[in-house]
Amino acid sequence: MSVRVMILGGTAEARQLAEVLEGRGVATLTSLAGVTRQPASLPGDVRRGGFGGVEGLAAALAEERITALVDATHPFAQGITANAVRAAELARCPLLVLRRPAWERTDGADWSHFADLPAAMAALTAGARALLATGSGSAQALDLRPDLALFLRSIEPVGALPAHVTQILARPPFSRAEELELMRAHRITHLVTRNAGGTEGRAKLDAAADLGLRVMMIDRPPLPEGVAHVLTVGAVLGLLAGRGVLDTPSGTAP
After folding, report:
1. Is residue 130 within a helix (H) or strand (E), and if so which, with residue range?
2. Confidence (pTM)
3. 213 and 112 in contact (C-beta within 8 Å)?
4. 3-class DSSP state of 60
5. Sign of CA dihedral 22, 27, 33, 36
6. β-bridge mates for residue 97, sequence order
7. Which helix (H) or strand (E) holds 190?
8. What is each CA distance from 115 to 12, 70, 104, 111, 151, in whole angstroms?
9. Can the peptide bond before residue 221 be classed as cis, meaning omega within 30 degrees of 0?
10. I need a surface site. Which of 10, 129, 217, 251 has the fewest CB within 10 A?
11. Measured distance CA(26)–CA(44) in Å, rounded
12. DSSP characters for 220-238?
């Protein structure tokens, strides 16, 4: 049977993996959750929208004759990862989870750590002007602090925002200079963000450090126990080769 890899995507690493695999002649099917209305083009086949839960994903793995499943979704996509684990077990399909390394605090940066967004919101001090780099899925937490000036940045618009929330529509990546300009323009005092990791999102943390802002860092949820977890595209290729799914990679991506 020919090799066919399904990638649960939506990240830069998912795109890179698809490019590398397609470049090596491996057919890929990238699945996108459909949250972003106009995602950038991807190599290989692309599927948009959910599968209908665990059973639907398991059926798709069988119908598409998938050789291996790689979960390269956002580090906070807990539901998708949990479904991928169960579906791979049902379909008896090898599963790997690709998660880029988490950000680490640099010397002099002011970080506070929280388990979730409501906890971070509760800890904001009176009079704060907070930039929420937490996406459109943060809308339900916005009413928790009507006493603050909040600036919600997301790719997709969020309707019916409270009066104390300003919507900032923008598509990453952003440069350090752009982040500094934004924070200064809105007189931001706090940055609220999830520890998504990756080089593209690091600029906002560097800008916050430059301005001496406090960062309210939401820590990553744990991965399901026992799941194979790697940090780079190259490591994915190496594990796929080790499991006999691919030939031994040469000159693999970092």
Report:
1. strand 129-133
2. 0.88
3. no
4. helix
5. positive
6. 71, 229
7. strand 190-194
8. 25, 26, 16, 13, 21
9. no
10. 251
11. 9
12. PPPPPTT--EESSHHHHHH
CA distances from 159 to 145, 150, 167, 169, 170 (A): 18, 15, 9, 12, 15
Looking at residue 181, its amino acid is E
Look at residue 90 and give its three-state secondary structure.
helix
Residues 177-212: pLDDT tens digits? Answer: 999 999 999 999 999 999 999 888 999 999 999 999
Structure tokens at 229: 């977890």
Locus of tokens 């989870």: 97
CA atoms of 3 and 20, how far apart (whole Å)? 14
Rounded CA separation 193/204 (Å): 9
CA dist., res. 32 & res. 50, Å (int)? 8
Residue 229 phi, psi (nearest 5): -130, 125
* CB distance 200 to 175 below 8 Å: no
CA–CA dist 123, 132 (Å, integer): 14
pLDDT tens digits along 85-120: 999 999 999 999 999 999 999 999 999 999 999 999
H helix intervals, the chain: 12-23, 53-63, 78-91, 117-123, 176-185, 202-211, 233-242
